[in-house]
Design brief:
Keywords: Cell membrane, Membrane, Transmembrane, Transmembrane helix. The chain is mostly helical. The protein has one domain. Helices cover about 75% and strands about 0% of the residues. The radius of gyration is 18 Å and the shape is globular.
Length: about 170
């Protein structure tokens, strides 16, 4: 996002929002019960997330240092959307938060579907607002980085630190 400017904030935020909708939909459809029966699934998800972050770090390091204006907007937007979606879907904390949060707001005395829909839409709106705001703020931080290679190295370092954190978390 920093590399490509303010115009890419929306695709990234939409990727996170779609992941939020998928988290909510899966948990509210009963995935929580399956995960409770197969607790190792969160460990596998953690490793998948860590590997994906390592991939993003390598991609950031290999990224060309040429001006971002030479890249076309559509592939950049698509890539940022998919990166945001995959980062969020491979984050075990996101799944765990969904598993713990959504069921607590369901009233068994009321119709289930309207409650699930309202929870999902509310979560998506919150996600879109938060991540859209983060990405617009990131655009302002772009000026702090003089060179794109410097930005790529910082991004790679952050991805690697988060991947390491995922791997080293206690079970």
């Amino acid at each position: 996002m920093l590399r490509h400017g303010r115009g890419t904030a929306l695709p990234g935020a939409l990727g996170f929002a779609l992941a939020t909708a998928l988290h909510a939909g899966a948990v509210l459809a009963g995935l929580g019960l399956l995960i409770q029966q197969h607790r190792d699934s969160l460990l596998y998800l953690r490793w998948a997330g860590a590997l994906y972050l390592v991939y993003l770090a390598v991609r950031a390091l290999r990224s060309s240092a040429g001006p971002s204006a030479t890249r076309t907007a559509a592939p950049v937007a698509r890539r940022l959307f998919l990166d945001a979606l995959l980062i969020s879907l491979s984050n075990p904390k996101g799944w765990l938060a969904s598993l713990l949060t959504y069921p607590a707001f369901i009233d068994p005395q009321r119709p289930y579907a309207p409650q699930a829909l309202l929870l999902t839409l509310t979560a998506v709106a919150i996600s879109l607002s938060i991540y859209g705001g983060y990405m617009l703020l990131a655009h302002r931080a772009r000026a702090a980085f003089a060179k794109e290679t410097q930005l790529n190295r910082i991004s790679a370092g952050i991805y690697l630190l988060v991947a390491l954190g995922l791997v080293l978390l206690p079970h």
